[in-house]
Amino acid sequence: MRAKGICLALDIEPSPKHIEATRAKLKRMVNHHVLAEDEPGVFTLTPKRT
Which of 30, 39, 50 is nearest to 22 (CA)? Predict the structure, then answer.
């Protein structure tokens, strides 16, 4: 899902300021291995490791 779609799903105004802030948070979650960025700008949940 893209940052704009996540803003819309969370009922956050999809202005450029909010989209960029959401994208920065998503990038941090990628660094913590909570999310994966399969393509630039497309974020998905990482599969659970066992």
Answer: 30
Residue with the two structure tokens 């300021």: 17
This prediction has a pTM of 0.85
Tokens found for residue 25: 């948070």
Alpha-helical segments (H) within the chain:
3-9, 16-31
Enter the DSSP assignment of 45. E
What is the tens place of the pLDDT at every residue in 16-48? Answer: 999 999 999 999 999 999 999 989 999 999 887
What are the CA-CA distances from residue 2 to residues 6, 11, 20, 43 (Å)?
6, 14, 11, 6
Read off the amino acid at residue 29.
Answer: M
